[in-house]
Structures are given as C-alpha cells and as structure tokens.
Amino acid sequence: MKVKACSVRLLDSSGETLKLAAAYGLSGEYLEKGPVEVENSFVDKEALSGKTVAILDVTTDPRWQYPEEARKEGIVSVLCVPITVKRSNIGTIRAYSSAPHEFDEEEAQFLHMMASHVGSAVENMKLSQHLKKHCEDLRALVDVSRTITSQLRLDDVLNSVVVETARAMNVKGCALHLLDERKTNLELAAVYGLREEYLSKGPIEPRTGLSQALEGSPVVVADVTKDPRIQYPEEAKSEGICSMLGVPVKLKDEVIGTIEIYDDKPREFEEEIQFLSGIAAESAIAIHNARLYKTALTSWRDLVQELSERIDLWGVVGWRDRSVRPL
After folding, report:
1. 128-291: in CATH 3.30.450.40
2. Which one of 4, 99, 263, 273 is least enclosed by Cβ atoms within 10 Å?
C-alpha cells in the first residue's frame, strides 16, 4: 500500500482491550504509549462494528485516542478495517500514512483482503492450538487414569484422584465428595491443596455451590466473590480461591459424588470441563473396583477367621465340637 506502517491488534479475553499482535514501521515508544481500549478508541470501536474507518488527520481529529503521540510518531492518515473469524470481529488492522492521504475504495478492499488472511491465520492457529491441547489432555488423562486405576485400596484411590487431578490440571487444589450410604449428604472423601481451616468453615447446604453438580451437570464458578451460589465467599477468598469447577462422579448413570477443582485466579473453565469429566468417569470405576476389592478382602478375612476357629493346632476340624474326639 506504500504507507508508513501497519499494525494488527486482537481483542483480549475480556473483549474490552485490543492487544498488539504485530506491527511494522512503528517505534517501540509509540506502540507502548498506552492501552487501546475499545470504548475509548472510536476508530477501533467503529471497525469492530463492521465498518471501514478512514481518518484524514489523526492529529486534529477528536476521534483519535492518542493525537500527540501520533504527531511525534509522524502519523497523519489512518485506515482501519475489522478482522473477522466466523462472522465475529476479533480485531482490527490499520494502515498508517505519514502524509495526508484519502484512502480510496481499492485501498480499502486491499486492506480488507489482508484482514481476511489474518483472520484465516488466527483461526488456523487456534485450531492447531486446540488440537495440540486436546492431544496433551488425552495424554494427561491416560497418565492420571493409569495411576488411579493401579490402586486397590480405597483410601489410596481417593488420594490419588485428588493429587493427580490437581497436578495434571495445574490448579491450587482438588476435593472429592461422595454420597453417604443414605445418598442424602455429601461427605468429604479426599482433598489436596486446601487448608483444614477452610475445610472446617461450616456445613454445606444441599444444592448450593458446587454441590449442584449432583444434579448431573458441571458447575462453573468464575469468581467466588461475585457468585451468589457460594455460601462462604470470604472464607474462599482468604484461602486464595478465586474460581471453582465441579463435575458429577457417575457410575452407570448414577451420581455417587462430585469432584471439584479450585484455582487462585479467575477462570471460565471452558476446555477443562471435558478433561475433569473424564477423570470423574475413571475415578468412579476405580472407586467401584476398590469397594469390590474391600468387600472381597473382608469376606476372605471372615472366611479365614471362621476356618481358623474350626481347625485346631494339628489341623483337625471341629476340635471345639465335643461330638468329635481326636484319635
């Protein structure tokens, strides 16, 4: 386009600020002048609404966010268009001229074409990252599953679940709650990364907070201080907990408990839900097997005890039975 410079900015996760993704022809001092907030940048706000925006002189136009910085940088005219991915505008691309220049339709179409290429590149990059993350999650899930299912003792299974989950998902802590024999109350079965002071904060009312996962669906708490479902927001804040995710632990379509993760920063837990649900499914099987093992072990011990009571030191059955006399 034979212009001074070009820049690409993409919306951050909040959708309120445009973060610099790439630039050419602009000094580091100018690029670090301050944040480009959508609400305060008319040019980008209009472009993100789908419009093509051209300003003849940014140093005198009140719609430009940083006129003095533009003057020092030698920027005069700017053309800005949206970057679109799947009908959503995710950022803007700007062309900067060092002299007054009225951008024509051909130049606008060319910049739109470049924006389309950027959008395709961003989409491909996100797809690649998603596939890479999916593969990493599968690998981690296999590792966690192998560790959990290798245990036979119930206590070892429960502890492995919370420890391996917290480590694999890189979160502050993890807890596993199981329904009692009456299937009316959740009882803490195992925990990792949380202090006893927080755990003893008070009783959890049914169907509140993460216990809602008993209804069969994941529960996401992005910020404990702003979510009315949380019973103890101050205690959670003191513990350093900011966000939570809870999923049901199901065995043959029957919910037997919940598994929860806790993090010290705000998170929406979009991709983590599937991973934690996979761990919950493996945990349910491991818990069921451990319970069967415990039952079998108890039955075996009872049988051994019963036989030992009926066999004397010399291996004669019924020593205590007076109707049977030794030779």
Report:
1. yes
2. 99
> Crossing angle for the helix pair 154-169 and 105-149, nearest 10 degrees?
160
From 3-7, 62-66, 141-145, 240-244, the region with the lowest mean pLDDT? 141-145
- Residue 268 is predicted with a pLDDT of 85
- Cα 168 off chain centre by: 12
Res. 43: pLDDT tops 70: yes
64 falls in which pLDDT band (50, 70, 90)? Answer: very high
Domain with CATH 3.30.450.40 in the chain: 5-102, 128-291
Angstrom distance (rounded) from CA 321 to CA 104:
111
CB 43 within 8 A of CB 80: yes
Determine phi and psi for 82, rounding to 5 degrees. Answer: -80, 155
pTM above 0.70, yes or no: no
Q: What CA–CA distance (Å, rounded) separates 182 from 59? A: 73
Please tell me what DSSP assigns to residue 131.
H
**Tokens in use for 224?**
């404990």
The answer to whether the beta carbons of residues 149 and 155 sit under 8 Å apart is no
Nearest to 41 by CA among 53, 24, 32, 29: 53
CB 201 within 8 A of CB 191: no
Lowest mean pLDDT among 35-49, 61-75, 130-144, 262-276: 130-144
Choice among 16-30, 185-199, 238-252, 308-322 with the minimum mean pLDDT: 308-322
| Domain at 5-102, CATH homologous superfamily | GAF domain (3.30.450.40)
List, as one string, the DSSP characters of 143-158. Answer: HHHHHHHT--SHHHHH
